[in-house]
Structure formats: C-alpha cells, structure tokens
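Structure first, sequence second, as always.
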C-alpha cells in the first residue's frame, strides 16, 4: 500500500464500503461538495458515467460504492492530480470499473463516444479566473475557470449524454442564472435543484442540480439541505450522508 504513496501524501478512509482515497494536504483535497454531489446522483444498473474535472477521483470512487455494475470515466487535465486518482483507483481495486483519463475536458468528445452516456457528473471550478496571480497553480486550476468555463462543462456534458441522459452538477448559487442559461442553450433541461445552506440561518452557498437531455420543461425545487446545526455539529442528514454505507439500502441503484 505504501508504494502507492508519494511525498506528503496520505490515505484517507471514506467510511463507505471500505473505500479509501489518496490525498495530499499541501495540494487540493476534496470537500463536502464532492460528497454531496455523489450522494445526489441517481444510478441505474449498468450505467455508463463520465465525471468531468474528476480531480483526485473522489466522485467516481464514491459512485462505485453506490453501484456494483457501473463503468465510470474520470476526466482530469492535470497529470499530477490524475496520477493520484489512478493510484486511488488501484488502491480500491477498481481498475475494471473506473478509468482515469488525462485530458482537457473540452476534448473529451474526441476520445469518448458522443451521445452514449447515461450520466455525466461535474464538480467544476466555481470562480472566474480574472485577476489570478498564478493561473497554473493546482489549487487555482481546481477552483477557478482557468482551463475550462462553465459553458465548456455544460456543452461537453450535453455532447456525451445520450437522449434523456442526466447531468448532475454542484456549483454556487451566484452562478444560477449562468447555469440555467447554458443548460437550456445545450438542451439540458433543469429538472431538480437543491440549495445547500451552511446553517439554518444563513443563505445557501452551494447548489445541486440535475438536468435531463432533451426533456420537457418542469423544475422541482427540493427541500433545502442544512450542513451544520447552531452548535457547529453536522445535521442529521449530513451525518446520514457521511456515515451510512451507500449499500445499506440494497445496491444504491434506482429501478
């Protein structure tokens, strides 16, 4: 196991079906947004999935814990980060189900078959790149639209998805108008949205959205999700998301 680690790296237990992930605390570690996104995704048996901007592979690995049958591609432009993701896949013996591809997501349609995937997921950079001091820094690339824009993500997702395939994304509420505009522009109809609030008395700082390719318009606004109680402890729903095995309720897949 130690041979999979490089300098400053550690192995973290994901508390789900004995899954683990390699992280570098001096680089970019996954956050609650990735966990919430993976939990939000609805899987069907034998789903073909692409995760755009996969980072260290957290979303594909968590999705592998929800389904014993899905095949998942993780697209990541940064070779160093993609290498960590591959080693995490190997650590979990998921090489037959998860494939990490070092690639600019804007070129994903040149490598992967278009109009064939059941699900595309993305936890993209949230912030504009304007004014960045070091646009080549790993954290900057993960957090700011340096290598891709929101429109790039949505356009690529639409090209990869089959008719009525689903796109799941986590993003910031302040980008909601842009999200809706680009999704409609590329024929991804918003179907569900859920706002994530840090506490009961604060405005949302994240949102989860599900879109369906070429679907009829009708949006369901789900109940809000609150992360922390007044005492700073996680709410019961967050404890459930983090603490339960994703396989406790059958296979975690929908019919």
């Amino acid at each position: 196991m130690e041979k999979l680690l490089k300098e400053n790296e550690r192995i973290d237990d994901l508390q789900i079906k004995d899954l683990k992930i390699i992280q570098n605390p001096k680089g970019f570690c996954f956050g609650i947004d990735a966990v919430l996104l993976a939990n939000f995704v609805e899987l069907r048996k034998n789903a073909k999935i692409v995760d755009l901007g996969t980072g260290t592979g957290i979303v594909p690995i968590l999705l592998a814990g929800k389904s014993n049958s899905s095949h998942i591609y993780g697209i990541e432009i940064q070779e160093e980060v993609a290498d960590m993701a591959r080693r995490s896949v190997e650590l979990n013996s998921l090489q037959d189900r998860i494939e990490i591809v070092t690639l600019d997501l804007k070129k994903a349609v040149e490598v992967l078959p278009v109009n064939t995937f059941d699900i595309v997921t993305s936890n993209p950079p949230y912030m504009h790149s304007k004014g960045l001091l070091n646009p080549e820094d790993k954290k900057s690339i993960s957090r700011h639209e340096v290598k891709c824009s929101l429109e790039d993500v949505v356009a690529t997702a639409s090209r990869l998805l089959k008719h009525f395939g689903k796109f799941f994304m986590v993003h910031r509420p302040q980008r909601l108008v842009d999200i809706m505009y680009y999704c409609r522009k590329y024929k991804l109809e918003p179907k569900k949205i859920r706002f994530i609030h840090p506490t009961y008395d604060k405005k949302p700082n994240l949102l989860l959205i599900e879109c369906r390719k070429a679907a009829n318009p009708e949006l369901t606004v789900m109940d809000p999700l609150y992360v922390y109680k007044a005492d700073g402890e996680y709410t019961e729903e967050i404890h459930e998301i983090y603490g339960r095995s994703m396989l406790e309720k059958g296979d975690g897949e929908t019919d």
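Margin note: Confidence is low (pLDDT under 50) at residues 245-255.
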